[in-house]
Design goal:
It contains 3 helices and 17 strands. It has 463 residues and is an alpha+beta fold.
């Protein structure tokens, strides 16, 4: 009996010992598992925190990128394009323009009653001719300035004339929407005046541009603009000019003319965009502004010369529509401009004898044009344009006014134009245009066949 009891006691002791060891090992494993959970939980929490911070940083970067994109879009209209350029390798481009012109009337007889035409405001020659070609060089000078020069070549009476059309510098980093341009440049009076002729939708300038500016107003001076930091495009500016070029045309030192302008515009959805502009040009104490002369009996031409004060007010409106906001395949553009010029002074007929013929002069000339251009296929567009002018000029000697071309002859100059353009690419254009020109008494039927080609690097065009 004793032996079985002893064996039972030994078995019980061993069993209890194993239970104790098992409980101890289980407890240790639980502690290790808890430690692992705590360690990995902290690591997971750290990863979650890093992920949250990364998402927040990405959102902030996206917001900043969107704000920057808006600012870039707003500044496109006032900043020169400098892609692919540096101070050692300026962008060089050549604009080739050629045309064939047909007129029913003699181009030498052209006039616009009520407007004394200056510069190259008349018609071009009949037949084949080299048109208005340009050599353009531009580049960022450094991180502060941009520079541009344009040489224009024109064929006139069988001779090629060269003119320094543009030569200016422009700031890049003034900040706060400010920008300064200095040198020779196109004035920002009116919408079309800011654009080079090769970008126009028609082969010739509107009649009111021809009558007031001799096609375009270019002068030497300084321009200051400010682009507002708003979602709606808003730009205001002023220009100070020497006034030595037409239509001031007489002042050779100091400040002879100035302008002030404001442009506002925006988008309506993704398919519609618009721009409205107001501008003012003024020249006080104009001295001897000469207009086209008139031959009499083979002698020296009698040339009208104006001295006095002149000011011009202008209104422009541009609307564009493109399906899905993509103008490459299809686009409709409507363009309207109105100008009003008032002048006060005297007109002298130079080379008219001794003493020269002279009259007091109180001038009021106005006009507008409206045009629509429709790109119905990626490589084809058609255009329609209508011009209308009016004038009410008064003076002490009606005969002198008539000699100077300032008598309106009871006629309101007007013109109808239609064009069709083939655009194989953004660098080439072929245009056929017809004008029914009623600028003066005898209607002139005009036909133009024009090519415009762009070679080399050329900056983007404005709105």
């Amino acid at each position: 009996m004793t032996k079985p009891l002893v064996m039972a006691a030994i078995t019980a002791a061993l069993f209890n010992s194993n239970l104790a060891l098992a409980d101890s090992e289980t407890e240790a494993m639980k502690q290790q598992l808890d430690a692992l959970k705590s360690e990995y939980g902290q690591a997971i929490k750290a990863l979650e925190d890093r992920l949250l911070k990364a998402e927040q940083s990405a959102q902030q970067a996206n917001d900043q990128a969107q704000e920057l994109a808006v600012k870039v879009e707003q500044s496109k209209a006032s900043q020169p394009v400098s892609s692919g350029q540096n101070s050692f390798n300026p962008a060089i481009s050549l604009i080739l323009d050629g045309r064939f012109a047909s007129f029913d009337n003699d181009p030498e007889d052209y006039e616009i009653p009520g407007f004394a035409l200056g510069n190259e405001a008349g018609l071009r020659e009949k037949g084949f001719s080299v048109g208005h070609s340009e050599l353009v060089m531009s580049a960022n000078i450094d991180d502060k300035f941009f520079g541009k020069m344009t040489l224009a070549f024109d064929d006139h009476e069988g001779e090629v004339e060269t003119e320094l059309e543009e030569a200016f510098i422009q700031t890049l980093a003034l900040g706060n929407g400010l920008n300064i341009k200095a040198g020779r440049f196109f004035s920002e009076i009116g919408y079309l005046n800011q654009q080079h002729a090769h970008t126009w939708d028609f082969a010739d300038a509107p009649l009111i541009y021809r009558g007031l500016f001799g096609d375009q107003l270019i002068d030497d001076g300084v321009q200051m603009t400010w682009l507002a930091p708003t979602e709606l495009f808003l730009q205001v500016g002023t220009e100070l000019f020497s006034g030595s070029r037409y239509p001031a045309g007489g002042r050779t030192n100091g400040i002879g003319a100035w302008t002030a302008f404001a442009y506002v515009g925006g988008d309506i959805g993704i398919e519609h965009s618009w721009q409205l502009g107001l501008s003012h040009w003024e020249a006080n104490d104009v001295e001897g502004r000469e207009s086209g002369g008139h031959e009499h009996g083979g002698g020296e031409a009698e040339t009208p010369s104006f001295s006095g004060d002149s000011e011009i007010n202008a209104l422009s409106l541009v609307y564009k529509w493109a399906p899905n906001g993509n103008p490459k395949n299809q686009q409709l553009k409507f363009q309207f401009e109105y100008f009003d010029r008032e002048e006060d002074g005297e007109v002298v007929m130079l080379n008219s004898g001794t003493p020269p013929e002279m009259t007091s002069y109180d001038g009021d000339q106005k006009g507008w044009y409206a045009q629509t251009v429709y790109k119905f296929k990626p490589q084809w567009q058609v255009g329609l344009r209508y011009d209308l002018l009016d004038s009410n000029n008064r003076g002490s000697d009606a005969d002198v006014l008539a000699e100077a071309g300032l008598d309106n002859e009871n006629h309101n100059p007007q013109r109808y134009s239609a064009s069709i353009d083939w655009l194989p690419s953004e660098f080439s254009r072929l245009r056929l245009q017809y004008n029914q020109d009623k600028s003066y008494g005898e209607t002139d039927h005009q036909l133009f066949l024009q090519y415009t080609m762009s070679l080399g690097s050329h900056g983007a065009h404005q709105f």
